[in-house]
């Protein structure tokens, strides 16, 4: 097995591309190392807001890239988004990677959908992936989409929240009020009311588009969680990316239950001090989607179009770390089977 490595973009030859590189904030990530070579697959990954280290969505994508670097013969480059940036910045970032010979290229987050669809037409020999493609729609024979049934996983953690709550009030904190995050909320509320119809679900979004700081600003998550705790919510679920760190720390610090998202947040180093107050997490296998895509390009099996990750193929689920849902796991598994069989219909938003 040969190990790939991450590197910083170099040899940018035009002033325009140098400006783009500066705007993108490319950097060398730690780790990797080993052999690459001229024949190594060069994989470019453009993160969503927060980048590597957000302890959530982006870190899950990074884990998939890291796995590919360990198991496949690849080089990698990572660059991050900026809050409230225009689509033109995302397009420049993707073009920069493509012009530097990176193939395949991954855009992490629904905000990359339009930019990938546009830039992919300019580079028909380069394979692209959008993680969380907007509406699960991409264009072109060289573009794939990784889509997730977030509402299904959220249904299960909603049931866990309602079964655990002692006040009958639980909370949902979304990062930005967009259709993607509304799916988390819809599933969470439906799951709670499936097991305890009288459960009250408090809901708050940290920002409204085009302000996407709700996926990054920890203080916003902190303040929203304080407000829900004051209203007697004793289990709070976030779908707020890096801002969710503030939610979990605040909820855990108050001795109440937090529910994580995307990754198994019980195992995140930044949350070690409150991990025993993380009831569960809605796990979204972004790492698997990223790895699957890179491997498909590496072995020639790439197929354009959407690929859905749901409960049936273990693309979403719930975490059991810490043992806090052990006493209700049988019920959660029963609900999971009902969703997979179609007996339980989970709403996917407004």
UniProtKB/TrEMBL annotation:
Keywords from the UniProt entry: Cell membrane, Lipoprotein, Membrane, Signal
Signal peptide (UniProt feature, chain positions): 1-23
One family name in Pfam for this protein: Bmp
Membrane topology: Lipid-anchor
Domain named ABC transporter substrate-binding protein PnrA-like: residues: 46-348
Compartments where found: Cell membrane
Name of the protein this chain belongs to: BMP family protein
Domain of life, source organism: Bacteria
Broad class of where this protein is predominantly found: membrane
Family, similarity comment: Belongs to the BMP lipoprotein family.
């Amino acid at each position: 097995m040969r190990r790939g490595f991450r590197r910083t973009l170099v040899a940018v030859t035009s002033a325009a591309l140098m400006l783009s590189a500066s705007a993108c904030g490319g950097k060398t990530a730690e780790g990797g190392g080993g052999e690459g070579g001229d024949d190594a697959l060069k994989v470019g990954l453009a993160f969503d807001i927060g980048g590597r280290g957000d302890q959530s969505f982006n870190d899950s994508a990074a884990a998939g890239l890291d796995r590919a670097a360990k198991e496949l013969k690849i080089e990698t480059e990572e660059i991050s988004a900026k809050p409230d940036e225009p689509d033109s910045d995302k397009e420049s970032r993707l073009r920069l990677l493509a012009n530097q010979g990176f193939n395949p290229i991954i855009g992490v987050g629904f905000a990359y959908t339009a930019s990938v669809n546009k830039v992919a037409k300019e580079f028909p020999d380069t394979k692209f992936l959008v993680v969380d493609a907007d509406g699960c729609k991409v264009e072109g024979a060289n573009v794939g989409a990784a889509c997730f049934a977030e509402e299904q996983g959220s249904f299960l953690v909603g049931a866990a929240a309602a079964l655990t709550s002692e006040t009958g009030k639980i909370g949902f904190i979304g990062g930005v009020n967009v259709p993607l995050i509304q799916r988390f909320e819809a599933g969470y509320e439906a799951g709670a009311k499936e097991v305890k119809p009288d459960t009250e679900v408090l809901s708050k979004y940290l920002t409204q588009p085009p302000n996407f700081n709700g996926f990054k600003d920890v203080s916003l998550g902190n303040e929203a969680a304080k407000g829900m705790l004051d209203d007697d919510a004793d289990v709070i679920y976030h779908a707020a990316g890096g801002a969710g760190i503030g939610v979990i720390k605040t909820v855990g610090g108050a001795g109440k239950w937090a529910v994580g998202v995307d990754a198994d947040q019980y195992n995140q180093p930044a949350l070690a001090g409150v991990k025993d107050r993380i009831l569960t997490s809605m796990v979204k296998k972004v790492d698997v989607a990223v790895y699957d895509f890179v491997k498909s390009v590496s072995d020639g099996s790439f197929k354009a179009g959407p690929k859905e990750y749901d409960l049936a193929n273990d693309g979403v689920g719930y975490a059991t770390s810490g043992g806090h849902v052990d006493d209700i796991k049988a019920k959660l598994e029963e609900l999971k089977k009902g969703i997979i069989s179609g007996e339980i219909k989970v709403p996917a938003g407004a």
